[in-house]
Amino acid sequence: MIAMGGSIGTGLFVASGSAISQAGPGGALLAYVGIGIMVYFLMTSLGEMATYMPVSGSFATYATRFVDPAVGFALGWNYWFNWAITLAVDISTTAIIVRFWFPSWPSWAISVFFLLLIFAINIISVKSFGETEYWLAFIKVTTVIIFLAVGLLTIVGILGGRGPVGLKNFTYKGGPFIGGMPAILSVFVVAGFSFQGTELIGITAGESATPEKSIPKAIKQVFWRILLFYILAIFVIAALIPYTSPKLLGSSASDIATSPFTLVFQRIGLAGAASVMNAVILTSVISAANSGMYASTRMLWAMGKEGQAGRIFAKTSRRGVPLMALLLTTFVGAFTLLTSIMGPHVYTLLVAASGLTGFIAWLGIAISHYRFRKAFRFQGHELDELAYKAKWFPFGPILAMFLSIVVILGQDIPAVLHLNWEHLGISYMSIPLFLVLFIYYKVKYKTKVIPLGEVDLSPHKDDPDYVAKQARMKQQQK
Fold first, then answer.
1. CA–CA separation, 154 and 262 (whole Å)
2. What distance in Å separates the CA atoms of residue 213 and residue 205, rounded to the nearest whole number?
3. DSSP string, 78-122
4. What is the pLDDT of residues 41-68, one digit of tens each?
5. What is the CA radius of gyration of the chain?
6. Which of 45, 182, 204, 267 is 20 to 30 A distant from 247 in Cα terms?
7. SS3 of residue 203 by DSSP
8. d(CA 441, CA 443)
9. Mean pLDDT along residues 445-470
């Protein structure tokens, strides 16, 4: 439920309408299916490594051990930066959403309240994080199921009072494909952002009592449900609302009234549809902030353990919470207050800053898995030793690498074609950030790509800290 809910957020509730308006119903469906296939292979790649070597902050550790320590260093700080800034964005967004009901309330007070709430949830224990995420995910999943049922009944004419709608909107005004490949590529970016968060399964592996069972189960069951939700939701929206509708152009959490979910509920006469969806989107944003806090603190904790961040970040509380990593991430989240002091342009910059970092993380996962499997076979290991085996190797990670690079480079094609340097700087700022981190570590420590025969494949199951942590978690669960 947590992994499923983690990938259902404003990308589905709001930005899905923008995707349909840009590329038409067919283009949007094609983009979401394509990214969904890529994410499936990423999930299987991550699952193979996470069941063999379950560690918190897995991406940085895997890249460090299987590729190059400089890649692991840059990837880890990149991912921490991604979620820490995303936390700031989400906390700012809570103020926008709450002011929908209470416009006179100060934004800074709302942001402080939710930041302290997220901090409290994460500082108590891993269990409190999990319980909170479960119920927030339950609300989101239930909303999507109700939406799909209402939408499908409206399409066939049982609800809505206007007779069957059918699929006429798919061919409306030149549909279903609009804008050609450039439009579809731009929607690939939107779809990719919508699916980001599925990789949290790898982050949580190190704190699962039985990762060899829970990780494969999560990958097999959850991903197909997520893909089903997204594809069916896009289908329902495209069938009921023409892609030319200006109300589909909203693409931020502040456009609650233009959420395609709101539009569909309003079509059947649901009173207060905007207010209901506002509440659901608020739970979605809180969930994203909660996940962001968890993921970023665990990544920073893992880098502290690996010596790629200050050792102070490797320390944990009696409940196993990485306290100093949590405090630093909360401090970054406090930058949300600048949106109240310096204006909404700070919010825009925060959104842009978190842009491509998720795709860079996906690229790192694919490369790490490719190197892991090659080293595994090179050193004489048999695939039967793996608790979970990724299917279609090496096609899966190669496809994921290719599509990740395409999406990263195609982030803002109009800015590239027109040489809009301001937009280029904002859209692609994550790339120079990653390169600076990589080059800094490479030059300082003179690292190299690890030869396949020297890749460290020893699982962490023999690590005393890991064994003690697993014993502590099992005791807490009793």
1. 14
2. 10
3. HHHHHHHHHHHHHHHHHHHHHTTT-TTS-HHHHHHHHHHHHHHHH
4. 988 898 899 888 887 666 788 999 999 9
5. 22
6. 182
7. helix
8. 6
9. 73
Phi first, then psi: give them for residue 394, nearest 5 degrees: -95, 10
Q: Is there a cis peptide before residue 432, judged by omega within 30 degrees of 0?
A: no
What would the two tokens of residue 322 be? Answer: 């990485």
| 298, two tokens | 């665990």
Within 8 A by CB and 6+ apart from 359, the residues are 192, 404, 407, 408
**Cα 226 to Cα 141: distance, rounded to the nearest angstrom:** 9
Calculate the CA dihedral of residues 421, 423, 427, 429 and round it to 10 degrees: 40
3-class DSSP assignment, residue 5: helix
- Token duo for residue 41: 């292979």
Q: How far apart are CA 462 and CA 86, in angstroms?
A: 35
Helix axes 58-66, 69-98, angle to 10 degrees: 160
Going from the C-alpha of 319 to that of each of 117, 128, 233, 322, 469, the distances in angstroms are 18, 11, 40, 9, 10
Q: How far apart are CA 93 and CA 110, in angstroms?
A: 10
CA distance 272 to 2: 28
Question: Which domains are assigned to the chain?
Answer: 2-447 (1.20.1740.10)
What's the CA dihedral at 41, 42, 48, 52 to 10 degrees? Answer: 180
**Residue 423: CB partners within 8 Å, gap ≥ 6?**
412, 414, 415
Return the structure tokens found at 165.
């709608």
Q: What is the pLDDT of residue 340?
A: 57
Is residue 300 within 8 A of residue 309, CB to CB? The reply is yes
Q: How many CB atoms lie within 10 A of CB 152?
A: 16
Residue 400 burial (CB count, 10 A):
26
- Return the residue matching tokens 């100093």: 324
**How far apart are alpha carbons 235 and 243 in whole angstroms?**
12
Indicate if the pLDDT at residue 463 is higher than 90: no
Residues in the chain: 478
H or E segment to which residue 197 belongs = none
Q: Give the pLDDT score at 258.
A: 64
Extract the tokens encoding 303.
């880098």
Secondary structure, 3-state, 365-433: HHHHHHHHHHHHHHCCCCHHHCCCCCCCCCHHHHHHHHHHHHHHHCCCHHHHHCCCHHHHHHHCCHHHH
Rounded Cα distance, 309 and 356, in Å: 22
**Dihedral angle at the C-alpha atoms of 321, 327, 332, 337, nearest 10 degrees?**
120
pLDDT at residue 129 in the model: 81
